[in-house]
Structure formats: C-alpha cells, structure tokens
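Issue: ligand-bound run for fe (ii) ion - logging full I/O for the record.

Environment: standard queue, default settings, no custom constraints.

Inputs:
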Amino acid sequence: MDRRSFIASVGGVVAFTAMTANQKADALELAMNDELEARVNKSVICTTYRRETPDPKEPLKPGEFNHMGHDKRLPRMSDKPTLLEFFEKRLTNSSHLLQSARLARINGLPEKIVLACLLHDISVGGYVRVDHGYHGAQLIAPYVDEEISWAIKYHQSLRFIPDEDVGYPYPEAYIRYFGEDYKPEPYIYKDAEYARNHKWYMTARQITINDVYSFDPNVKVELEDYYDIIGRHFKDPEEGLGYDNSHSAHMWRTMIFPNNHL
Ligand SMILES: [Fe+2]
Ligand SMILES: [Fe+2]
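Outputs:
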C-alpha cells in the first residue's frame, strides 16, 4: 500500500497527523490485512484459545509485570494433566475429532486407527495449524504405538493426494478452502510419496478417509464413548502431560501456559 492511499484510508492528512504512533501502526496493520488476498487464520495458541490477545505496544508501567503462570482467562489445568483434561480444557476442535473417530468405528476399523482419528488434528485444535500433522505426531509419540503417531504425521500430506482405488478423491473442501489451482509445497508431495510406499500407508490413509468436514447437528458424539480406547492405547504419564521430561513435554506445557512471557 502506498503512503497516499494509506493516509486517505485513515481519513486524510489532518486525521493522520492527529494520530499517535501506536494508532498509526494499528491502522497500517489493519490496512495491510485488508489488502491480503487470502484470509489468514491464527493458530489457537496465538489467540489464547480464541480469547484474542493483542500484543501490548506500550512499555511496562511501574508496578506492571509481564504475565507468567496460569492465565486466568483459561480453565486452569491440574498439576498432573491427562489427555482427557486437554480435551476438556484446551482442544477447540473436539467435535471434529470425535466425529472422525465415530466414523472410523462405524467403518469397523481397529481401535488403534480409531484413536489415530480421534487425535489426528490435535495440533490444529490445541497447538498450531501449520504442519499440524507433524506437530500432532510429535506431541503424542511418547504415549502411543509408533504406528499411530506415524499415521498422524503423514495424514497431512496424504490429504492432498487422491487415491481413488481406496475411495479417496481430492477433497472438494480443499477446492473451497484453497482455490482450484492450489498446489502444496514440494515437501508435501515428497512425504506423501514416501508414505505411499510404507507398510503403514493404509493406517494414515484411513485417517484421511474418515476425516469429516461437516458437523452433523443430529449426531452427538460424547468423549466418554472413547474413554475405553484412550485408556487402552494412550499411556498418560504418571507425572502428567508436560511434566514427564519426554521429548514433547514442552509442547504440552506450552498449551498449559500459552502466554508465559519467557
Ligand atoms: Fe488434518
Ligand atoms: Fe481433520
């Protein structure tokens, strides 16, 4: 955006001159957002689970401190959080996950795959959107059978690659989301190709087949219906997720304390 059209967008030179530096910065951000061709969605963790947190621009005032510890706006997590507690207090997409798990169960798939469907987008709902398959797999890897985390990692790339032989066309929703001409980055093709030749290909592919976009208001899926499968296939650590010193403990802690300053 050029300077002249920016000044015009805030109401002209007089209005522009009367603005503080912060107001100008905010107006510029807004104007640049309006110019974007695509809608940019922030990950839930950046918006404090949809309780938007604008970045403070003013320096700290005397007696004011940066936030550390439990964020009062969020449900407080216990000292030993379990997967179920994260479902209840942090995951913002549990209905999508439950619907996918339900479909997998209706399709008669093994419990391991039902759990993979139940957790496949855990990163989208609780952590970050970008590379959600990779982050989701890493989050749960210490607590599940390797096949489950592997499948979650690769469902992300396989979502973009149709396999009509097993009943998976390119998702119609992706045309709506990303446009007709959208082509994923090369690493997506490379990883999908690798997954396609792997012994667990069909496990990851089943996640994509049972990945449902529509939420049927007439179907109520309760998390309780999956307590038994979670109990058998997800090993919550004794110390609680976030506190067991596993390779992903820091990621769970990030969800517990999403706004710690450092
Ligand atoms: Fe996904
Ligand atoms: Fe999904």
